[in-house]
Amino acid sequence: MAVNSVSSLGEPLGVGSIIGESFTIFFRKFFTVLILAFVPTLIGLVVTGQLVGWGLAMGDDTNISLEAFSGMGFALSMVIQFAVYGLSTALLVQMAYDSKLGRPANVAAYFSRAVQSIVPITLLSIVAGILIGLASLALVVPGLWLYAVFSVLVPAVVIDRAGFGALGRSTSLTKEYRWPVLGSLILIGICSWALSFALTFVLGLVGIGFGGAAVGAVSIVLFAAITGVSYGLSAVAISLIYARLREIKEGTSMNDLASVFE
């Protein structure tokens, strides 16, 4: 692999380009993005709801007791949430590269590769989440900084095949670019929240008129769809951040990255 780190470091990340291209891919492939994020999210939500209750799983129960946050059920539900996020991101990273290169989506292949990577992605995401959480307890800024440090963990597993070395790989790739990476992630996070809010409002209006037992099922599906949209935009942005960092530091083109899927 050719490495151009000496000559290319200092090149801007291109936050504006990343944000713009994230939206372009997201809306161009909206239904593909939705499906890839929705299916794992729905399955995870149903399993979590059975473990800890629908109120806690969907975050809409204001009377949750402290006991709900203890026990094996809650711990298992947290592992499931990390796995769902990791699986969704792994699927969408592959889709984003194919979309950028104008290639058709291959959902079956995406699932096959993502499932093969799910164990390291889940375990490393838990480790990263714990570290970020502990740093955030001290001060918010260190937590955000660590979020940027580990932000390209999933692409490192799926594309680099870094396995359990993905934390180190993400740390290396984001070095010297963590603040612009964080800026990109914050902007995308705000946009994801705005999209989720808008969809919640619109789908809430559509949902008016459902009654009886249908309300629960409809709410679960809509919640999974809205969460999937948020996951989708974030995952596309992360894949583009990773690609840009590889381009700056190693001279790796998008075609080179996508070739690992062939």
Automatic annotation (TrEMBL):
Residues that span the membrane, as ranges: 30-52, 72-97, 118-139, 145-167, 179-208, 214-243
UniProt keywords, alphabetically: Membrane, Transmembrane, Transmembrane helix
Keyword set includes Membrane: yes
Protein name: Glycerophosphoryl diester phosphodiesterase membrane domain-containing protein
Source species of the chain: Roseovarius albus
